[in-house]
Design a protein that fits this description.
The complex is a heterodimer of chains A (256) and B (735). Helices cover 27% and strands 19% of the residues of chain A. By secondary structure, chain A is an alpha+beta fold. Chain A has 2 domains: 10-80 and 122-150, Ubiquitin-like (UB roll); 83-120 and 155-250, Outer membrane lipoprotein wza fold like. The two termini of chain A are 31 Å apart. Classes of the chains: A alpha+beta (256), B mainly beta (735). The A-B interface holds A 51, 124-126, 137-138, 140-143, 177, 179, 217-223, 225 and B 28, 30-31, 33, 123, 125, 152-155, 161, 410-416.
């Protein structure tokens, strides 16, 4: 059985239209039920007395959004999991401890700035594509516990992270037919980047968190295309370990 | 359904043509990748000259190439990412096999050759792919040559893709001598090349490598923007003055131009037509068919409808007494491949002791078996132990937690996996109680096809024998088996096989060279009738003992012992046999004395043979998925020495292997070929048939069969029987 709670409002009146059987209303501070799913950006919290199939939860959630969500970027985030936070803290400590004196201080500051501005959360590694879930029973597990469900709109940008040159995430608008190299050139030209960007330092993290190390050279003919919301991480020179940890942390980045 | 599909295709084609008119609207695609093509001699290359390029691992080619001088039949396999091997049969168009027409008729001069190419350096941004290769390693020197070549790729957005090759060749590949052999300045030994071959042929003639004439060669392979079309041009390092039609047949092979030009047209992803204009005067035609041993998938997995989901409609019994054992056993056999089932119940645990005959992937079998056991067993049973036996020997045990299985099967949590409910036991714990139920069927039988073939003989290029085998087996105690095999020879052309014993003046016991008598002269023959006993001692020792007609040519008594630990990548074994050669003219007799066959040809009336064997599967990435077997001991003809066998398993489960024996029998005593060597590949049946099947089809090729370095062909091998300790022959498909 499902109970729906508006976080900011006590009254919801149209459940019968949505085909649900409503048991009770409650505030967000209500006692924990078997399954509680907060749908991001809707102020809606779905509460169930019993564990539910993912398909049921997703179908219910879709009732509260008036757009087609971007499934590659959708995430089912485990509420109260500290793993993302701990990973971020570990990386901050590592940067503070291991950053070499002869490296640019600015790069270190930029790294820390980027990290501090963002939260990283533990997400379940499962597809949230309704059609796939309907077709494959293994993609439709029973879930229980407390979750946040991120059902973003399709972003119209990709993100460049370049700690050597910037303390912020840089959003580049999606460009038709642009591949990864086009975006790099666009970024260099648009932000007047003078220093050489070494292709071997670059990692792509697609919106579904697939990690790609592009092999780029004049001789190579392989094009790499980016999904909306993908990251291009331009690694720092001095520490492959920090780069590796940073890329790992990007898998915990769930906000678009 | 057909109409719907047709309509869909029709709409799709309209949509495609609309899009095609507006190139700006096309979504971005990867450019078509240049797929390196095969050369005339087989293997990746231009036309006559090789490149440094390698195919994808597991790529297998069959090529046929013909021009006015030669016809090449070649098989080329990319064994490892860094190793390409090619086997080639050549027919020389204008030369006969021998001048004795009564012996070889109009059979053309034939030659066998093996090539190998090793990649030394993988292509990087600024360095070309670099490979070194040997052509005709163990042949009689018709095309022997060596090369080092460098290949660099260039991709353009508008003009297609190019592979530029520059190489240095010796021997056949450097016959034009357009440069001085660079090694000649180092030592005079490298200035001339001895064209004779070692021993009686078939040996590796490394003494002439990189010697004599040397020449630069090179060329370009060009992938045009019209995807099926590739163009090639090459500068030839050979001048054709020493080709065999010239030297042995007084036939002119003039070279009007060192530039050769070729076209490769891709009929599909798996077939290329090749046409080239070589030497300025010769048209060469060829076709290449290919597949990839890594990518081949079992058909029942590629088309899941072939392995239909089964739905058991059973009401769960309330107690052990109401279990329907017969239905349970039948269902396990039909759906999960478990046969010769024995069931034991101890409190809340059910143990199934059974053979697996259907699924290579044991997780798949256990998943299905769990479903069936869950349906047929009362809820008081909470644990299933599945012990797999082979030839009565218990090999492996897996423990299944019923509740975990139910949660897995119902997808009660995120990302359920088989390891959530299946746990491997470190060792097998046989149940101590008597069985609750067991299959009564101790007798089994079946027919199987059999093909014996010889390629490139003097009498005919292809000698074959097609037959069928009737196999039967009876277990009359838990570890005693009586099994037999009768071979029916249905069709063969071994009557063309002129000699009964080799005419190379060897005087070894004819342990393997009486092939004609055993194959052609017997249309029905008892190839095997033996009594076997199988034992397991402690946890890691296995033994088989056998007595009877052990194989087509030998009878006797023997035993094999194997030490093998679970998950270990090595094992050690020992076998010893007392044998007597069978009389091909009788089903049951053996030769009583060495001169029973003839006054001049000795047979093995009484003898011993046996080997110590070491099995090793390297865990280095360079030798990924390989198995080495080293045997030392006494071979059938009494010669003592080593046999080394190497095999590589591809992701699909196809195994390709080669072996060679080197014993104290000299090359002169051995005869043509100098030592025993052979090749084989085995293909899992489930990639050939539409149903799951854990058996294999075996193809074996021994270019020349002689009597030295030959082993007894036992019916069972303990390393195969114990395969599940660390699966090799029944390893699941890698994805």
């Amino acid at each position: 059985m499902k109970k729906i709670t508006s976080i900011y409002s006590l009254s919801i009146s149209c459940f019968s239209l949505l085909g649900f059987s409503l048991l009770s209303f409650s505030l967000s501070a209500s006692p924990f039920k078997s399954l509680e799913v907060s749908v991001e950006n809707t102020n809606i919290s779905l509460q169930y007395d019993r564990p539910q199939r993912l398909l049921q939860v997703l179908s219910d959630s879709h009732q509260y959004i008036d757009y087609s969500p971007y499934t590659l970027g959708a995430s089912l985030v485990i509420k109260n999991s500290k793993i993302g936070f701990e990973k971020k803290e570990n990386l901050i400590n590592k940067i503070n401890l291991n950053y070499k004196a002869n490296d640019k201080v600015e790069t270190k500051k930029n790294l820390l700035s980027i990290l501090e501005k963002h939260n990283f959360k533990k997400r379940e590694e499962i597809t949230l594509d309704l059609e796939k879930i309907q077709l494959d029973k293994n993609s439709n597990p029973i879930i229980q516990g407390k979750y946040e469900l991120m059902l973003p709109r399709t972003p119209n940008y990709i993100i460049v992270i370049d700690p050597s040159n910037s303390k912020d995430l840089i959003k580049l608008p999606l460009k038709y037919n642009y591949d990864f190299e086009d975006y790099i050139n666009f970024y260099k030209d648009g932000f007047n980047i003078k220093n050489k960007i070494k292709s071997e330092k670059i990692t792509i993290v697609q919106a579904d968190k697939e990690t790609i190390i592009p092999k780029v050279s004049y001789w190579n003919d392989k094009n790499y295309y980016l999904s909306p919301g993908a990251f291009i991480y331009i690694g720092i020179e001095s520490s492959p370990q920090i780069n590796s940890d940073f890329i790992d942390l990007l898998k915990y980045h769930v906000v678009f | 359904m057909f109409n719907q599909r047709f309509l869909y295709l029709f709409l799709l084609s309209i949509a495609s043509s609309v899009n095609a008119n507006d190139s700006e609207a096309l979504p971005p695609f990867q450019t078509y990748k240049l797929k390196p093509s095969q050369m005339d001699f087989g293997g990746v290359g231009l036309m006559q000259m090789p490149t440094a390029r390698m195919s994808n691992e597991g790529e297998f080619f069959f090529n046929y190439t013909k021009n006015s001088e030669y016809a090449f039949y070649t098989f080329s396999l990319q064994v490892m990412p860094w190793l390409e091997s090619t086997i080639r049969y050549t027919e020389v168009q204008d030369l006969l096999y021998s001048n004795d027409e009564s012996f070889s008729g109009d059979t053309k001069y034939a030659d066998k050759g093996i090539d190998a190419k090793l990649r030394l350096i993988e292509e990087s941004d600024w360095f070309p792919e670099t490979s070194i290769g040997i052509r005709d390693i163990g042949g009689t020197g018709l095309f022997d040559g060596e090369f080092i070549s460098f290949t660099k790729h260039l991709a353009t957005e508008s003009f297609g893709q190019f592979d530029f090759t520059l190489g240095l060749g010796w021997g056949y590949l450097g016959q034009s001598g357009n440069i001085t052999n660079p090694f000649c300045s180092y030592s005079n030994n490298y200035c001339t090349r001895d064209t004779s071959f070692n021993d009686n042929g078939g040996s590796i003639d490394s003494q002439r490598w990189f010697k004599g004439n040397a020449a630069l060669f090179g060329g370009i392979e060009y992938q045009t923007n019209y995807h099926p079309l590739r163009l090639k041009v090459e500068y030839d390092g050979n001048d054709y003055t020493q080709d065999i039609p010239v030297t042995n047949g007084n036939i002119l092979m003039e070279q009007d131009s060192p530039w050769n030009y070729g076209i490769v047209y891709g009929l599909s992803d798996y077939a290329d037509l090749r046409v080239s204009y070589e030497r300025g005067n010769t048209i060469t035609l060829g076709i290449s068919l290919s597949t990839n041993f890594n990518n081949t998938q079992p058909l029942y997995k590629a088309y899941p409808s072939l392995d239909k989901n089964f739905v058991e409609n059973v009401s769960t019994p309330k107690s052990n007494q109401s279990i329907n054992w017969k239905e349970l056993e039948q269902s396990l056999f039909n759906h999960s491949g478990y046969d010769k089932n024995e069931f034991y119940i101890q409190n809340s645990k059910l143990t199934l002791l059974a053979e697996q005959n259907k699924y290579r992937d044991r997780d798949e079998a256990q998943d299905k078996a769990s479903s069936i056991l869950n349906d047929y067993l009362p809820n008081t049973i909470t644990q299933f132990n599945i012990i797999e036996k082979v030839n009565s020997l218990p090999i492996s045990e897996n423990v299944i937690d019923r509740e975990n299985y139910i949660n897995y099967q119902a997808v009660n949590y995120i990302n359920p996996k088989t390891e959530d409910f299946i746990q491997q036991s470190d060792q097998v714990n046989l149940p101590s109680s008597s069985s609750a139920y067991q299959t009564e069927d101790n007798f089994s039988y079946g027919f199987s096809p059999a093909l014996t073939q010889t390629l490139g003989s003097a009498e005919d290029f292809y000698l074959y024998s097609i037959g069928t085998k009737f196999d039967s087996s009876y277990w009359f105690a838990s570890s005693w088996q009586l099994d037999s095999s009768i071979y029916f020879n249905l069709l063969d052309n071994y009557d063309k096989f002129n000699y009964t014993v080799p005419d190379d003046n060897t005087s070894n016991p004819r342990v393997r060279t009486l092939a004609r008598e055993y194959i052609h002269d017997n249309h029905v023959y008892l190839t095997n009738l033996q009594l076997s006993n199988f034992q397991k001692y402690s946890h890691n020792w296995y033994q088989q003992t056998y007595l009877g007609y052990l194989e087509q040519m030998f009878a006797g008594f023997g035993s094999e012992l194997l030490y093998r630990r679970k998950e270990a990548n090595w094992a050690i074994g020992l076998d010893w046999n007392i044998i007597s050669q069978r009389d091909p003219n009788s089903w049951l007799s053996t030769y009583n004395n060495p001169w029973d066959y003839s006054d001049t040809e000795e047979v093995l009336s009484k003898g011993t043979t046996g080997h110590m064997s070491i099995y090793y599967r390297p865990e280095w990435s360079l030798l990924k998925d390989t198995l080495f077997q080293l045997d030392y001991g006494k071979f059938l003809a009494g010669d003592v020495g080593l046999q080394l066998e190497f095999s590589k398993q591809f992701d699909s489960g196809i195994i390709v292997g080669a072996y060679a024996s080197k014993t104290d029998m000299s090359a002169e005593e051995f005869g043509e070929g100098s030592f025993t060597k052979g090749f084989y590949f085995t293909v899992p049946f489930d990639i050939l048939t539409v149903k799951p099947n854990s058996s294999r089809a075996n193809f074996h090729w021994q270019p020349l069969t002689r009597d030295g370095g030959q082993k007894l062909n036992k019916q069972n091998y303990l390393y195969e029987i114990t395969d599940q300790l660390n699966p090799w022959y029944e390893r699941p498909v890698k994805h």
